[in-house]
């Protein structure tokens, strides 16, 4: 199978938003929705290497405002509830009774919430680098007492203003002003700072590679928008709904994931037990799929998911 798309479409989902949906692989294969992270990253064809395209019908969906979805970077009518409703609209539009899910970071968060909200629609799912959007996670990422202590030089570059953990809203407001500045060079500088910090945690030592400046600014803007709004109560929803997940769920978490520390996820799953969720820590693994250990683990888990389904787990 080649990486040429089976189809490319824009689906109108209301509020003036159109989602870019591309399909790859075997049109008669196991349907799999890939949920990208960020939020705001968009899908990349580079990520097709995760899937056996002779077995899977892979569906790439750029979330609202992200990737090739239109209007690009739009924040209006862009929130957690809309993203979950959009996923269900795509399933209905494709005429699928159920499908598998795969995704990392915030994409894993969305997958968990969707599988809890629509338990009869998800066969199985493979997730990695799962983000638990709690206040503790936000302080870990953007405050002074978490990842900042592990990466002091990178955090100094990231911090455009001195801010305590109690003043994070001011910090986010400062970045919003920078990302929305009328001067292109100022916008680009704030974008670079934001994404460089993210990359420092996701794959330490790896150089930032953002080929498309406009898409990079969209990613930084949407990420900032979601964290500034406390991810629209995603953590509270997870706490209530994760017990409703009925699909076999494998979560791969890197031992050295400094974006979404494995200890945070482990504690969450200890407090909100679900027999269908299995957590696997990848020794020496980081957050980013640029890390070969994580990529190999994800590819293996997705392959195993196909094997169990082919053996008769679709009813």
TrEMBL record:
SUPFAM superfamilies: alpha/beta-Hydrolases
Subcellular location per the Swiss-Prot or TrEMBL entry: Cytoplasm
GO cellular component, one term: cytoplasm
Main location (coarse class): cytoplasm
Alphabetized UniProt keyword annotations: Aminopeptidase, Cytoplasm, Hydrolase, Protease
GO molecular function, one term: aminopeptidase activity
Secretion signal span: none
Enzyme class: hydrolase
Pfam name, any one: Abhydrolase_1
UniProt-annotated catalytic positions: 105, 257, 287
Catalyzed reaction equations: Release of N-terminal proline from a peptide
Record domain AB hydrolase-1: where: 31-288
EC number in record: 3.4.11.5
GO BP of this protein: proteolysis
Keyword Transmembrane helix annotated: no
Stored PANTHER family: PROLINE IMINOPEPTIDASE
Similarity comment: Belongs to the peptidase S33 family.
Protein name: Proline iminopeptidase
